Predict the structure.
Amino acid sequence: MDYTGRHTFWCWRSRRDLLLYQGYYMKNVRVRFAPSPTGFLHIGGLRTALFNYLFAKKHGGTFILRIEDTDAARYVPESLANIIEALQWYGLIWDEGPDPLDPFEKSIGDAGPYIQSKRKKIYQTHVSELLERSAAYPCFCTTERLDSLRKKQASEKQTPRYDGLCRALNPSEVKSRLVSGTSHTIRLRVPTEGSLTFRDMIRGEVTFECATIDDQVLLKSDGFPTYHLANVVDDHLMNISHVIRAEEWLPSTPKHILLYKALEWTPPFFAHLPMILGSDRTKLSKRHGAEPALEYRQRGFLPQAVINYIALLGWNPGGDREFFTLNQLTNGFSIEKVNKAPSIFDIQKMRWTNASYLRTMEPNRLAPFARKFVTDKEISDEKLANLLVSIRDRIETLEEIGEWGSYFFQKDIAYDPALLIPAPGTKETALVALIFVSEVLEKMNDEDFTEPVLRDLFVNRIKSSGKKNGEILWPLRVAISGKKASPDVFAMMAVLGREVVTQRVATALILAQGLKKA
């Protein structure tokens, strides 16, 4: 390849070639999610993983997890475990990648290792090829010189980039410095003129002028590859057919294509996902409700709800449907329907989505997610399921179980006895109501203490007595919950059981008797 003349490089030279190639690779889809363990998995990374997963499963392909840990200075030891746990909790199980039980030593799949720090020799071999083809060159510039260059360019309002000083060194000088052991990096030799065009599956045709592309460092002085070299080498050796990644990597794509061309490899398809912004259209942050992906588990969100919500950040399936299972998302997913424009993260909309799942999910499926949020660790699955049914219309996240389920977990509830008086009403109104309730409860047995039976019995008894529902049910609500606002009174009674309800009504009756007359 001529790196000095004026050329236009095409990733795909004609639509016919593109379609032929695309037809082959739609039958052999291999995608990867390749996070760096420099921090916990965030909402943007989770969406990238999800879209790769959906694309792979839609086309009967392979979803690969690859850990790009070549940046030793920024490596966070706990982050790998966090990434693995988060993907598993959200149901995005990889077909190939690190073994979750021993990720650093064991792999699932034949293209590993899937952790880049284990592949150092592979990258060095391909750097040698690039040097032999003059597609790369050694750079002996010190950190001090590069810092000074950046400051000078910034003061002159120029785009920071390498000035190519070592690019022009004659071969004998390069050899002499290498023999003497001078510290150096290896840089990509980018064409000085011309342009590079490729077709993005979301954005269409994208062109970069070569003059704007930096001579990127490929191999650092410590022998470790940079993201760019490792990314391209691994994508090729792992037979990645489609690279689906965040928009922030779009400017890196021409560098990657130049590497593919220099190594005489065919590039994969590229799709760059739109940014996710906060509600004020600024960079997404914690003040917008954005948290590490696993933090939503701690906040009482369901994995199905979060996946449903983030799937619609940038992807429009068409129609007005809002709720999808993972299988339904897979069947309907199309990368061509992903928008170019940034999507807006709205924590309130995600809470609303979660609340909808809480209201509709089968109680027995909901109970395992809820168990960590209840104070009574001995509560049976059946009791917990019934409790959830009683409060789920009131909560948006499982974290709120403590607030709305306090009537169940507190053995002795405390409240102002004056709350027992319905409005309008008096002490006598409350006493009459509680006596009425006590008489009904005396004639009931445990088997009949279900929500439908309780509702039917009390509504009919109240109606036949000529009283209003509020006169009776308000004091009853306060007696068993200690609150003005609570879940449905009959649902609470069914969860608490006849014995506890009878005891609390008796206590309320004593408290009401001690009230002063209005």
In short: The radius of gyration is 32 Å. Residues 363-409 form one domain. Residues 421 and 430 are 5 Å apart (CA to CA). Residues 1-8 have pLDDT under 50 and may be disordered.
